[in-house]
Structure formats: C-alpha cells, structure tokens
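Minutes, methods subgroup
Present: GH (chair), OT, SY

1. OT presented the first of two proteins processed in the latest run. Sequence and structure tokens recorded below as shown on screen.
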Amino acid sequence: MTIAVSLLGCGTDPDVPPDNGGTTLPRAPQNVRATTGTGNQVWLDWSSVPGASGYRVYAGTSSGVGPGVTAPVEVPPPDPNFSPLFKHDCPAGTTCYYVVTAVNAAGEGQPSLEVAGRNGGINLSVQISFRGAPITSQLLFPGDTIGLTVGTVSAGQVVEVTASAAGRDYQLTGIPGSTGWSTSLLLEGVPHGPVVLTVTARDVADNISTQSTQYFLDRRPTLTVLEPLDYTVARPSVHVRLVCHDDGPSCAIRVDGLTSGSGEFTPGPEEPLDLVLTAQGGGIDTISIVARDSVGSIATAARIVPFESSQRLTEVAQAPGRILDASADRLLWADSAQIAIQDRASGAQTVIFALEGDTAERGFLTPSGGLFQLQPRPSSSTAALFDWRGTEAMSLGDIRPSTLNVSQPFAVWAVNTQVFRRDLTTGTTTAVANTTGELAVGPNGDVLYGSGAELWRVRNGSPSVLVSDGFAHQDPVTDGTHVVYDRLDLGPSNQHFTVLNDDASESVLAGPSTGAGTYAVTNGWIAYSKLTLNLEQVWVRPPGSGETQASFVGSSSPRIESLSSDGQVYFETFDRRFLAVPPYSPDAIDVSGTEGRGIFIGGQPFVVIGRSLFAAN
C-alpha cells in the first residue's frame, strides 16, 4: 500500500518536561490519537516528546505494526510551539493501524501504544465527560464513571456504534432527536497506565469507521495524615507523619507551615514521611500538605496547629479535639465529628452530640453535663443551642449568636428579642425579658440588659431599672452584687467611661476615653483598664474600696481576659498573655502568646490552647 504523510500544526502541549538534550533515548510518544478525517484520510496526533529531533510513523492494514515489522516514515519535528499532527491516506473501508516513535542523536525510543483508524465515509466526533463536564485532558481515573458521547455524520443512517477500552466492550445507545450515541465507561479495576479507547460506527450500507484515542489511566493519590490531629499544640515543634497512597511509582509531597522544617519530599510508594515542624513564640498556623503523583494528579490535606514556646506552661491534660471548657475533673471538647466530655482522671470519653456537618463554636461544662452553641450555618443569622444533661442533648432553640452569656450556674440568651435564663443545675428555663441589647447574667441569676438610655436588671423574676441617666449603657457584667458597664456619652465628644454600680451608688472607675475599656468582676474583685501616665494599664479594685495598679508594662490597649475569685488577672497586650497576681508588684508574669484563653480552676491559673490544657507556672 502507499502511505502519504504530511506535517501540519496543532496547539502546544503545556505538560512537556524540560528538553533532555538528546543524551538519552527519547520516551515513547504519549496520547497518540487516530481521528477520522475527510476523504480517505486518518489524522494522527500526539504529545510532543522532549528532546526529539524527529519521529517515525509505522502504518499498516493489520495489527502489529512497529519497528522491525513495518517500514517507517521519517517525519521531522514540528515547530517547537506546536504539537505533532499527521494525516495518512488509509484506503476506504480499511482499518489502518499506527505506532509512533521519537528519535534523537541517541537513537530511536520505545514505540507508542498501537492505535487504529478506519474511514468508511462516517465522520466521528468523540467526547468524554465526567459528571457532565467535558474532559479536555488525556488523563482518566479508574474510580470515575466516564460518559462517552459520539457524534456521527454519514450519507447513510448509522445503525450501530460500539466502543472498547482496556479489554472491555460497550454498546452505545442512540440519543433521541440527534445523530449522537452515548454510554458510560466503567474503569474501576483497570490498572495504572496507558489505555486506548476505540470507537467504531457502522451505517446501513455496512460502511465502517473506526477512531482510536490513547489516554492514561491514573488513580488519584490519597493522603493519610497519621500525625498531628487538628489543634495539636507545637511546643514549639510538632511531629508530622503521613503516607501517600498511589498506583504510580512515587508521590512528590509538599509540606508548608510553621517557620522551619517544611519543604518538598519524595518518599517511596506507601513509605511514611516523617518530619518535624517548628515555630517560636505563640500563635496558630495551618500545615498545608499537597501530594502530586507522577502524572500530575494531586491530593491535599491540612492540619490546624497552634504553637507555643513559653517555658511557663506545663501540659496537664490533652483531649482528642479542641477543648471548649475545662474543670478540675472534666474536659469538654469537639472535633469535626462530635462533641464529647472527657473524664480527666480515667480518660473515659462520653460523646454528647454528633455534629453531622456542623461546627461547635462555644461550650461550657455544667453541673450535669455541657451547654454548647453551634456555628451559624451559611445564610443563617441564628445558632443552635443545646444542653446535654446526662442522657440526651436538649435543643434550647436557635438563638442570636452573640447573646449567649454564662456565669455558673446560670446562662442567658435571646431568641429574636425574647430573653431566656436557664438554671444549669435544675435545667429550668424562664423567659425574663424582651430586648435587642447586650445581655449578662450573674452567679446569683441576676439578668442585665441595656435598653436605650436605661440599664435594666431582672432579679428573682422582677425587672427594674438599675440606671437611667440619659447615657447609653453597654456590655454590662455582674457578680450578683456589683455591676460594671461601659457608659457612652452620646454628645459631641462620644466619650466612654467604665462605671461601677453597687445598688447604693455609682462611681467612675476609668475614663473619659475615646474607646470602651475592658473589665471583669468576680466575687467582689473588679479589674479594669485605665489610662495611666498616657499608657493604658490594668487596675484592680479589691472587695471594699481602693484600687491597685496591676500592670506596669508599656501597654497597648490591654484586654482583660479573666479574673479569679482572689484577684488574679489574665490580660493581653502586645500579642502576649500576662498574669497579674496580688499584690501586683513588681511586674505581671509573661505567660504565653495570645492563642487560646487563660482560665482559673480552683483558684489556680491555666491556659487552654487547642486540645491541650496547661498549668501556668
């Protein structure tokens, strides 16, 4: 037979690796495709081979063509900006078979897979897709169900279209109202490597056209991250251990996060990768993991990792997930799947809620179990609130997220404008007010809320106006006896004052200032920020009267975090957490970075970070 081959131009191949300079044999051409052309032509195209100085095309009318069997046609390489595209005169009604090799100064490389083409007067257009989206690359995945659609143009009616791939045969079904045909390709179990998809169409005159396309079958890599769990604290290092699973020879793994130890690694198949990442100071970061296999498929994973290098913290307990609250004997924690209570002595876990796609936002241990609030779902302005009391989680409604306030053993929140108070010991819930203002509750059950220029208090079920003086009253807190709030002068100055109300009288603790201060009140102790010699400092007022300066650092708007029943104060400034202890001299203790929160358990200072509870030394 006579073979006529001519060189045309096609688009560039974006996945060509660097030129090997002709020092080694070129690789076998990939993605070889035989496509029905016009007349008696069959068109061949494939991806450019790096370092190739030319190509050889082996063609014949029977299968088994290739080096040593069929005489080749020498073909020069195309312009480097284009991929090779060839046309071959295949006799009408005949199936032609093709193999392509690349050549360079070192010789001729390995042959491509054999593909077939046949022109019987039927023009075929083949399209594969995944979940309705066209697949434009030559890469297929064995776990996917691939849609195959074939368009046909023929002088006679096409009566049958079949396909074959990886030794599996498929009968296509005509698409009503069109000349197209379709089926699904099931590739599960087909091994990693090249595979040829051949489509054959037959019309009423028994004219037959065949078109072949080479693809590469690759199972997507998967990552198993063995360590760390989310919210494991780097002290200041964390051990990362993971395995990439793939059907190819290796995975290139890129690990980024923290400040040292990250990089790119290439472990062997199924070989665990172990490394240590480190960060100094205190904060939180995300370890990002990307695995890329030999054909470019990727898998990703991530871990949220707080880090803390302070020597003043000693870990005393650890939970499987992020700690929401801690007490002397229990931890309330959550991960992506559940909320649970851990017994600190035995380590026993009690799952109290299955999250099912939700995320725990806040949580509090109660005498009988745990109170917890979920994050608002997208497009929702409310958050679900639950109380678990030993047997099941009781829904307390969809609340305004910012209104939940807890002062053991009471909680207060709002559903729309309706305010509810719950006794966490008895499980009794009572509607106490209607307001859109901020809420607070005391350990004696007093409920505070602002309403316009008035500050209200509900005590023993009876509401009364606590303050009415023409100012705005914001962010109240109470220990059941003393009430501290931010008073905002709504005049031209818009000045803020921190005010103490103890029923008998009111006194200004701090101000005027251009912004609201921070404050806390516990068991008669009051901590608050106040401008002192042009610097914001923390001051403490003990039960009775008088005040003492508790911080002496060059503060930058200190935020009071928590206050113990004996006057110890956690506060944050300059991205550090400090602990001030009576008699507050000479300086507060630099405890840690500001990640997590400082709390007091039984009068002792602790810090909760991620899934760890630390004692502060």
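2. SY then presented the second protein from the same run.
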Amino acid sequence: MNPLVVAASLAAAVLAGVPKVEKSPPRPSHPSFSLGLGRPAGPRGHAFSPGEIDYAERGPIAPKSATQPNPPEADGDLGRIAVVYLGGAQVIRLNVALTHAGRSVSAAWYDYLRVLFAYFDRDRDGVLNAYETEQCYSAVGMRALFYGNYYTPASGPAPDFRAMDTDGDRKISPAEFVAYFAEMSDSLFRERRAQTTADDGTTENLIVRLDADKDGKLSKAELTAAPKLLFALDTDEDETVSLSEVFAALPRRKSNAAGAEMMNSNMMGMKGNAAATAVLPAAGDLFLYPGRALRGEVVPALIAKYDRNKNGKLEADESPFDGAATKRLDRDGNAVLDDSELHAWTRETAGVELLVDVGVTPESGGVTVVGDLPAGAVLRRESKRRAVLRFGSQSVELSLFVPDAKQSKSVYDGLIASVFGAKKHIDEQDLGGISNQFIRSIFDSADVNADGRLIRAELVNYFDMQRRTMDLGFALSASVNRPTLFQVLDDDHDGKLSLRELRTAWERLSLLEAPGATTVSAGILRPVVFLQASPGPAFNGARLPLSDDFTQQTAMQPAAPKPGPIWFSRMDRNSDGDVSRGEFLGSAAQFAVIDTDKDDLISLAEAEAHDRKLRPKPPQR
C-alpha cells in the first residue's frame, strides 16, 4: 500500500481513538494512568503525564500571549518554480508547478503537519506534552527526510518545547505545532544543477559510420540504412544497440583519420543546413526561482546577453521578445527597452505553466501543460511523464522521475525482519550489536504506547510516517546541454537504440532541419534545457538524460549484488563503494571506530575488518 494512504489511515485511526494495531500489555513495573498508558522509565517519566512538566532546570517561563496562533495560510506558490532561459535568440520563460495526486504542495504540506501531530499525540488528548514533543522530528532530521535520507534522533536536537508553546500553557496545541514547523516549508524544494558537458565523440562516431558519401551529413537513404549498419554491433543480442556497443566496435582513430578530419571540418563550420558551433551552452543562462516571481538579477543578465551595441538598453532589433511582447513592455513607446521596463517584465506572470503531478503510485502522475503557449511554440508529449516544448529552434524538456516505492519498502521490510525474526515483540535488550543501533536510536519514537516494547506494527507505522515525510520533498534537476546524435536518436532515453527508433530516424530528425532539406547535419543538435522533477526520495538518485557517463544507459541495467557486510551495503545508498557520515546510521563515536584511516569515509575494507572483529571466534580445539 502506498505510504501516503497508510499514513492517512493511521492518522484517522489516531484521531478517532480506535487503534489499528495490536497493543502490547503495559509493563507491570510502571503505574497506569487514566489514559491507559504506562509511564516510560528513565528521566522522561516525569514529562509523560499532561501538566507534569518541570521547568525548574530551565528557568522561569517568559510571559506570553494567551491567544493560540492560527495556522498560517497555505502558500499558493509553494511547489512552483519560475524558469528563465536566455541561451537563444528568444527568451524562454515558464513556470513549473508540482502537485501531489492532484493536490497542491501547500495543501499536502499542511495536511501532513496535522497527520504528524496526530501520530505523536500518543495519549490522544488533542495536545502534545513534553515527552511527546521530544519524539517529534528535529528540523535537521525533517530536512534530511525531505531529501530522501533516513531519520534518526541523532540528526539534531528535538523541537524546542518552550519555543513551540507560544501561549505558555505547557501544552502544544495543533495550531502551535503547525506554526512551529511552518517555516520548514522553505526546505521542501531543492535545486540540482547538472554539469554542462561536451560531446565525447559520440556524434562523430555515428556520422562516420552512417555517412556513406563522407560529406559530413546524413541523407534519407543513409538513415534508412542505419538499422542494418548499427544492429550489426549488437553483441549482447538484446535487439537494441547501446552506446557502449557503438564505441566498442569503433576502429582505432588512426584507421579512420580521413573520416575524422572530414567530420572535424564539416561539424565545426557546417556547409549549408543549420549552423553548428563548438561552443558549449552556458549554464549561467538558466535561472530557477522558487515561486512565480523573478529576481532583479535576471535583468542585468538579459541586457548583457542581448545588448549588442552595449548601450545598456535593448533596441527593437536586439529584443529577445516577440513583436507583441516588445510593444507591450515598451511603455514609453521609444522602441527601446530600458532597465525599468525590463524589471516590469520580471514582475509579470508567465503565460505557460508545466504541471508535474506525482501520483499516488509510481505508475500514476505525469506532465501536463496549463495556459496558452507563446506564439510559435509547439508541445510534444513524448510519454505520460515527459513533454518537450519547442520555441522555434530551442527546446525545453520536462520529465518526471519517481522511484519505485517497493525498493525503499523492501529495505524497511528487511530491516524489520532481521530485528524481529520469529519474535512478536522486542525490547532494548534485544538490540545489541552495531547492526541494531538504528532501531535502538528510534525505539522511543516508534514505541507508540510507551510500554518499553516494540511490536512489528509500531515499527511499520513509524517507517510509513518517515516515508510520507520523504514524499513531500521535491527536487528540480536542471541542465543545459547540446545533445549528441545518439541521444536524439534515443527517443525514449533508455540508453539504447531500438529498431523502431532507427527506422523513424529520418522522419524525426528531418523535422529539425529547415523545410525541404534533403540531408541532416550536426547543426540540428542545438542546446536543450532539461528539467527533471523528482520527489525527495529520488533526489540522491535523480538523473538527467545528459550526463558525463550517460547514466541513462547504466540506470536500466540490473544491479549487481553489493559486496561486504549487509549493514555496509544497505547504508551505501548511492552505491559509490563508501559509507559517508551522512549515510552511516550509527553514532559519531561508532563511525570514528570503524573509520580507521580517518578520511570521513568507511571503505569496504574497513567495514569488512570491523565486521571480522565483531564475529565470535571459533572455539579452540
């Protein structure tokens, strides 16, 4: 079941006062209260019963207003990103808006806070006492969850009870709880910039293979012959051609010197067709801002980019806007756009919005366009989760990447199974050894009825709440790159060329040339703005279709079993062969013990060496 649905069901059960999970009997060593829950042992026991909070060690309570704060209004711009690209002859401006199963990020955020409150309101009295507040996520920990990382109480200090208790009544109301965490909404969005990359020779490789007459261009006949020529390279016989297969079969460059020389001369200064350039697209031409509004820094960049006569203004023949927009912005009618008129443009609302919906399941959701497209713009929906907007010769591609929730759930399931085994419940005495320290660190937070025991349902519900928190965060990965010919041919961006993609090559590529063109040149490979939206759990693994090592190719390959101890392979979430401090689920002291070379990384060798120390030695014969 989807974590969002599970968490919502859990919250409904909590609010209704009807437990959905089996309750372990209270420990007899602790007295029962009228609430039906045992007092926790240890120093937190005094705080569990409402009204029994001792402030003596913290000093007197400062006078506060007796009026409870109202929940803040939902921010309508939460989940929206303004995008501006200045890379071509025409300025591209649009908004990207993220929704969760058709609901705005704002609505999902405030609903989540209410559900989170209900989850930590363990005695179901409608307020949080000091003990319950202590179990809540810290600010640092909540940000980590937004970005798809696990949470432990060691992630940061617990919420400040006194700061949250704004009316000083020693109880936290739902309104106070929402107000305290409201500012965390600023951390929901994270921008990721991918490095602008140069063509690694892929385009040259393909054209040399397909260009029968060696004129540096591809005709319809030459592209029609592409399936036969390229499928001969399919060494793994999977009926597709990967980039590695293309490069593996490439003759040494010495034997292809004439073709390479011809390609260099033709590709750097194309004769006929669209002009090509070896200059990489500038990443600084792409601006992303949370919300709808642009910032003033766009204006100087706009003038620097298009002001050819360097007079600090944009003449009519320099304007990157269409005729109607230029006339509208030219308020004084002098046929010149000055600084103030361009700043007025930044305060306008973009006419087109790309709506990205993260569905309830990985299979649902998608990309749609809201609003009127600018004059001359063309929309192409390449799949439910991928759309391309063409503005003349420029393109913006927006895609949605949602990880399979089953993968993260399988990690949780495996962890729970390894901890419980055949037991119906566990206590802290069952959690010895370094592999159980993560469960030990969250024991109190997951122990809903505070009886000092954990049953499976309590741990499952705790992880489901973490998952719901992860699902709230989102990232927008952005890059501006000139695609290679392989990437243009690879229509579904799976890192392989299928028979259908090669058969339709001329039909698709000829559309990128001027009408009536009889050949296709490298000039069609113009810079493209790639935007990929992804929820928080996907951030660390979000991938753009253009990257240094063509990750789309490797992403589809089955993962090989990871070497080393189980705890090491599970903590190495980015599969880079090391466990960093952020990935390590134990304490800082435990990390320091294992990290013997003190390089702030636990290597495979260090993990295996530490694991050997913990294993019991075989008995001496």
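Chair's summary of item 2: Residues 1-74, 252-282, 538-560 have pLDDT under 50 and may be disordered.
Next meeting: continue with the remaining queue.
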